[in-house]
């Protein structure tokens, strides 16, 4: 199995450590990466789901495998010692998710394949 990945990107780093029975085929740039897949130089194409959804429309007969092998978590931070600011940011993020605001922003962005993540354990 040959899997096309963006050289030195998150998928490359994760899959290099994880896969045992596949070969990664690397390219620099998303267009070159997709070209490897289209030209049968790779059996699969690893990318962020929104990118895969866009590319699937350009390649009739292609399909996206359900599920995921990793999740990208985003975070916000404040300088050390700014406890009130940290509480405010944390509360706002949870409010924005719980109220549907983040889901609304995702819908308005037009990006498909994104989801609102639950609060991470331990935070």
What can you see in these coordinates?
The structure is a single chain. The chain contains 5 helices and 3 strands. By secondary structure, it is mainly alpha-helical. The chain folds into 2 domains: 55 residues; 49 residues, no CATH class. It has a 3-stranded parallel beta sheet with strand order 2-1-3. The mean pLDDT is 88.
In short:
The protein has 123 residues and is mainly α. Helix content is 41%, strand content 10%.
Tally of DSSP β-strands: 3
Number of structural units classed as domains: 2
**Biggest β-sheet: count, sense, barrel?**
3 strands, parallel
Strand content: 5-15%
Could you give the distance between the termini? 38 Å
Give the count of helical stretches: 5
Helices and strands: which structural class? Answer: mainly alpha
Q: Output the helix-strand order.
A: EHEHEHHH
Low-confidence stretches: none
Rounded to the nearest angstrom, the radius of gyration is 18 Å
Outline: elongated
Mean pLDDT: 88
Oligomer: single chain
- Strand order in space, largest sheet: 2-1-3
Helix coverage percent: 40-55%
Q: What keyword list fits this structure?
A:
123 residues; mainly alpha; 2 domains; 3-stranded parallel beta sheet; 3 strands; 10% strand; elongated
Write the layout of secondary structure elements.
Blueprint: E1 2-6, H1 10-18, E2 23-27, H2 30-38, E3 44-45, H3 49-56, H4 83-98, H5 101-109
Parallel strand pairs: 1-2, 1-3
């Amino acid at each position: 199995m040959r899997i096309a990945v963006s050289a030195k990107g998150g998928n490359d780093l994760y899959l290099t450590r994880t896969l045992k029975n596949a070969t990664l085929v690397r390219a620099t740039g998303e267009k070159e990466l997709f070209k490897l897949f289209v030209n049968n130089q790779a059996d699969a194409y690893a990318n962020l789901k929104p990118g895969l959804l866009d590319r699937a429309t350009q390649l009739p007969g292609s399909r996206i495998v359900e599920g995921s092998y990793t999740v990208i978590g985003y975070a916000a931070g404040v300088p050390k010692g700014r406890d009130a600011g940290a509480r405010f940011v944390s509360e706002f993020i949870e409010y924005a998710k719980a109220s549907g605001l983040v889901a609304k922003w995702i819908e308005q962005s037009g990006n498909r394949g994104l989801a609102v993540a639950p609060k991470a354990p331990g935070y």
